[in-house]
Design goal:
mainly alpha; 4 helices
Length: 83
């Protein structure tokens, strides 16, 4: 069903349709990623989109781990100073 909806021709200005220039300006990385994977209904597109999601999750987890490690170091330093 979603593939059929994606294939339908839509009139310009239909409610809910994003302006492509605004979308591209708001999401430049996503736009670049979509340009690389090609056909929005192909296997390469699915795999590429999934990889984008996984890469983003990996970066977020690394950033959280870095923040947590920094917070632990501050707590340890404060504990040593209090002695």
């Amino acid at each position: 069903m979603l593939e059929e909806q994606a294939d339908r021709t839509r009139p310009d200005g239909e409610p809910g349709m994003p302006d492509m220039e605004e979308f591209q300006a708001a999401y430049p990385r996503l736009t670049a990623g979509l340009a690389e994977v090609g056909d929005p209904q192909g296997d390469l597109s699915f795999e590429g989109g999934l990889q984008l999601i996984l890469d983003g999750m990996e970066l977020r987890l690394k950033a959280q781990a870095t923040l947590a490690a920094g917070a632990d170091q501050v707590s340890q330093a404060e504990g040593e100073t209090a002695r």
